[in-house]
Amino acid sequence: MFDVLIIGGGPAGATAAIYTARAKFETVLIYKNYGALETAERVDNFYGFSKISGKSLVEKGLRQARRMGAKTVIGEVVGIQKNENGIVVETPTAIYRSKTVLLATGANRDTPKIHGLSDLEGRGVSYCAICDGFLYNGKDVAVLGSGAYALHEVTDLLPLASSVTLLTNGNEPSVSFPDSVIVRTEKISEVTSGAVASKFAGLSQSVFNGVTFDTGESLSLSGLFVATGIASGTELARKIGATLNPQCAVQINSEKQTSVQGIWAAGDCTGGLKQIVKAAHEGAEAGQSIIKFLRGNT
User: Fold this and answer.
1) Residues 11-29: pLDDT tens digits?
2) What is the structure's pLDDT at 200?
3) What are 177-188's pLDDT values in tens digits?
4) How many Å apart are CA 79 and CA 7, to the nearest integer?
């Protein structure tokens, strides 16, 4: 059981870790990669550096967090839940428990550009199998993705659904999926919908009913679970029931707390200015807020 678990190794996560570890709280920081900064050849608008690569800046931040006592783990977070024993964070190879969690994974830059997808969110298109899978008991569903995150969603759906299809949208699977999963690698041209009657007389609404591939072939489905790339802060917030704002960023208060007690968010995943200085600022505020919370609950 850690005191603080931070998801994301960029400026927001590392800055928060520096504060919480320095305050002598057991801190672990889990990150898959360096995020958007990994490919930034030159950063020249951050205080104290006239010229530095994004990768070097992240590496310096992680080293500083480790010097303060934080543990760092390279891994991909695929699930998050809250129970009476704290907050449980899952990677493909390990399970971590913590008293508090900070979402600092950055913004989702891997949302598929598929016609009709965003229009059907909440009406057959979901981002959380453990949240919504029970709605599709005995039905045919699909998971959109090709990696470890998609495998996690598939695993949650297999005991519930009549069938689970993996839609890779033109990508080759990067992990092995169970033999019972149908794998379709064709590019998807659009997600389709059909009108169904609502409980209010005379009204109807459009709900997801399948996908159409670039070949022209259609596949009928009852539900689609999006799990592309690495789970972003927004997707992890959805999994644990945290509120999103109208711009689909994680909603936080002045203390950088989400609507779920014990969960904070900082950096690009909270929306607004996507700059290193803003991420570090929010990371510092989140770290201080977490320290205050832990000191008041120990």
Assistant:
1) 999 999 999 999 999 999 9
2) 47
3) 999 999 999 999
4) 11
Q: Which residues of the chain have pLDDT under 50?
A: 200-201
Interstrand relation of 71-74 and 140-144 (parallel, antiparallel or unpaired): unpaired
- The 3-class secondary structure across the chain, one letter per residue, is CEEEEEECCCHHHHHHHHHHHHCCCCEEEEECCCHHHHHCCCECCECCECCECHHHHHHHHHHHHHHCCCEEEECCCCEEEEECCEEEEECCCCEEEEEEEEECCCCCCCCCCCECCHHHECCCEECCHHHHHHHHCCCEEEEECCCHHHHHHHHHHCCCCCEEEEECCCCCCCCCCCCCCEEECCCEEEEEEEEEECCCCCCEEEEEEEEEECCCCEEECCEEEECCCCCCHHHHHHHHCCCECCCCCECCCCCCECCCCCEEECCHHHCCCCCHHHHHHHHHHHHHHHHHHHHHCC
Closest CA to 180 of 208, 213, 155, 214: 155
